[in-house]
């Protein structure tokens, strides 16, 4: 027999923590945008993102890809810490006790509310040791310079660091499809570095995401 | 990507206007209607707040035994029902029909799917919708109904046709 009163011993029911109209606040007289915990948020102008890309390209040339990737890793690692802190505070229990679905829902809503696009996970290759993350409408890729290859360097680093922290083991990440190359969504494959070599070669040779996945899965056979 | 509908929240509408002009006669009249109904909204809100536990418990007790056995789905469904009713009540109070739908949209459908709550949700909400008109006056229920229905729509997954 379920007693409603027992379910309400803590009258705070958890729901959609990152819901857009609750998560973003402003203390406008101080010139601050804040999240619901009072931590500062910034709105990045499109033109600034473009300027960062072109400034980096002017100053560092091809190395800018690596710079962005490393910035992404730093972002991802810190984002993971903050994300877990916020979730733990809100749910009032360790993040590891959340179901995968709750965790994912929060991550998706978080991504959306920050304006980074729509993120989703494809765990079809989990048994083979790969995780595919897809991002649509990426704000960072949309303004990246057009190259003959995927350009989500920031996200590649960020997702790599985030999922390495989450899984507790060093993972590598390779972007295998990119909106800048006409793909419907950006695909990122995560796995152990040695097992992703084929993916890196595949990307260099403009092999499609589907074929790369087939190769990756086939390599163990 | 679809643009989210602008809130029709009456106070918000009033808030963004003053630099343009005074309200039109029609706007004053619709604000007047809101103010006129405020006492009813407050009363209904207080009632729902007070009855929350008993009302939901009553709905739960009426569920068939086999539904009560699946505790995980049942508990999740109860929490969802409480949230929907709380959001609907607040939406009614501040005249924001979409409040619950807006806040729960990115979350509720996932939970329904993960915890497989659809069958329990259906039973709980059917009986909630029958029970509320008995507890509230006709006027109060008419005020609660739109925000409640808007939030309840999130429970209907794409495969299920809406119930009448």
> What is the overall pLDDT average of chain B?
86
| Secondary-structure-derived class of chain B | mainly alpha
**Could you tell me how far the N terminus lies from the C terminus of chain B, measured between alpha carbons in angstroms?**
30 Å
Summed over residues and divided by their number, the pLDDT of chain A gives a mean of 92
| Radius of gyration of chain A using CA atoms only | 19 Å
| CATH fold-level label of chain B | Globin-like
**CATH class category label of chain A:** Alpha Beta
Instruction: Estimate what percentage of residues of chain A fall within beta strands.
Output: 5-15%
Q: Report the β-strand fraction of chain B as a percent range.
A: under 5%
Query: CATH top level of chain B?
Result: Mainly Alpha
What name goes with the CATH superfamily of chain A?
Trafficking protein particle complex subunit 3
How would you explain this protein's 3D organization?
The complex is a heterodimer of chains A (221) and B (164). With 221 residues, chain A is of the alpha+beta class. Chain A has a single domain (45-219), classed as Muramoyl-pentapeptide Carboxypeptidase, domain 2 (2-Layer Sandwich), CATH 3.30.1380.20. Chain A has helices at 4-7, 20-23, 46-60, 63-91, 100-113, 139-142, 153-167, 197-204, 209-219; strands at residues 25-27, 32-34, 40-41, 118-122, 131-136, 172-177, 186-191. In chain A, β6 and β7 form a beta hairpin. In chain A, α4 packs across α7 and α8 packs antiparallel against α9. Chain B has helices at 10-15, 25-61, 65-69, 71-93, 99-104, 108-114, 118-135, 138-152. Chain B is elongated. Helices cover 71% and strands 0% of the residues of chain B. The model of chain B is unreliable at 1-7 (pLDDT under 50). Chain B has a single domain, classed as Globin-like (Orthogonal Bundle). With 164 residues, chain B is mainly α. The two termini of chain B are 30 Å apart. Chains A and B meet through α1 and α5 of A and α2, α4, α5 and α6 of B.
């Amino acid at each position: 027999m379920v007693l409603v009163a027992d379910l309400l011993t803590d009258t705070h029911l958890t729901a959609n923590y990152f819901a857009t109209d609750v998560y973003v606040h402003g203390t406008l007289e101080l010139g601050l945008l804040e999240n619901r915990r009072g931590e500062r948020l910034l709105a990045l102008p499109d033109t600034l993102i473009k300027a960062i890309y072109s400034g980096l390209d002017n100053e560092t040339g091809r190395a800018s890809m690596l710079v962005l990737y490393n910035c992404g890793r730093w972002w991802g690692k810190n984002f993971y810490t903050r994300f877990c802190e916020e979730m733990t505070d809100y749910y009032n229990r360790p993040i590891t006790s959340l179901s995968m679905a709750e965790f994912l829902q929060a991550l998706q809503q978080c991504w959306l509310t920050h304006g980074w696009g729509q993120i989703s996970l494809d765990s079809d290759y989990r048994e083979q040791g790969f995780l595919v993350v897809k991002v649509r409408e990426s704000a960072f890729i949309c303004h990246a310079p057009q190259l003959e290859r995927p350009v989500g360097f920031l996200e590649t680093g960020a997702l790599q660091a985030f999922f390495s922290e989450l899984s507790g083991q060093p993972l590598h990440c390779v972007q295998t499809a990119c909106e800048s190359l006409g793909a419907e969504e950006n695909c990122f494959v995560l796995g152990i570095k040695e097992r992703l070599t084929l993916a890196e070669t595949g990307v260099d040779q403009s092999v499609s995401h589907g074929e790369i996945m087939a190769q990756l899965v086939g390599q163990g056979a | 990507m679809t643009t989210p509908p602008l809130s029709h929240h009456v106070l918000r509408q009033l808030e963004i206007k003053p630099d343009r002009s005074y309200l039109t006669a029609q706007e004053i009249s619709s604000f007047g209607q809101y103010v006129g109904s405020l006492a009813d909204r407050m009363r209904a809100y207080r009632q729902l707040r007070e009855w929350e536990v008993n009302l939901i418990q009553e709905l739960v007790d009426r569920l068939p035994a086999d539904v009560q056995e699946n505790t995980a789905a049942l508990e999740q469904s109860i929490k969802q029902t409480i949230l929907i009713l709380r959001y609907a009540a607040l939406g009614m109070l501040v005249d924001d029909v979409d409040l619950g739908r807006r806040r729960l949209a990115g979350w509720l459908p996932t939970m329904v799917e993960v915890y497989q709550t659809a069958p329990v949700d259906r039973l709980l909400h059917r009986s909630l919708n029958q029970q509320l008109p008995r507890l509230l006056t006709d006027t109060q229920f008419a005020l609660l109904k739109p925000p409640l229905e808007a939030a309840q729509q999130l429970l209907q997954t794409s495969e299920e046709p809406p119930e009448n």
